[in-house]
Prior knowledge:
- Keywords: Coiled coil.
- Residues 58-116 form a coiled coil.
- By secondary structure, the protein is mainly α.
- 97% of the residues lie in helices and 0% in strands.
- Helix 1 (2-29) packs antiparallel against helix 2 (31-115).
- It is rod-shaped, with a radius of gyration of 52 Å.
- The relative contact order is 0.04.
Amino acid sequence: MKNFNAIAGRMLKKIGDSLGRQSSVIHIFAKKYAGKxxxxxxxxxxxxxxxxxxxxxxxxxETKIEQILNTMTKIEQSKKSIxxxxxxxxxxxxxxxxxxxxxxxxxxxxxxxxxxxxxxEFLQTNEKLDSLSSGKIKLGMRSNYSLLRFQDR
Length: 153
């Protein structure tokens, strides 16, 4: 279409240039045909203008179609992203639920351990060790004090 438009435009220009230079000859020899030729050239020029308009509209249509196709591609990609994000959200929620279940299980296990007889025995043993340690410290302090008093004499 664009090639046709360019060729038609060049042909009309050549015809116009030729007639412009030869217009006096044409009027002298063919007055009868000059008017018809002029009318035919006007019709051709108008047709060329219509062709140019059609080509311009066609080019704009191609551009708009390309933009629409790009927009449709972006929409499809966005839909895919939304689906992927939905799947990720489901996986994240499942992971959160699993973690909550694990925490609950661990808390119950800790509570069971605290209620067991072994743990109570462990606490009692720790208390005995602590009391022995504090007694040992007191003994150590007394012996240090006695040594100091003994050295002063």
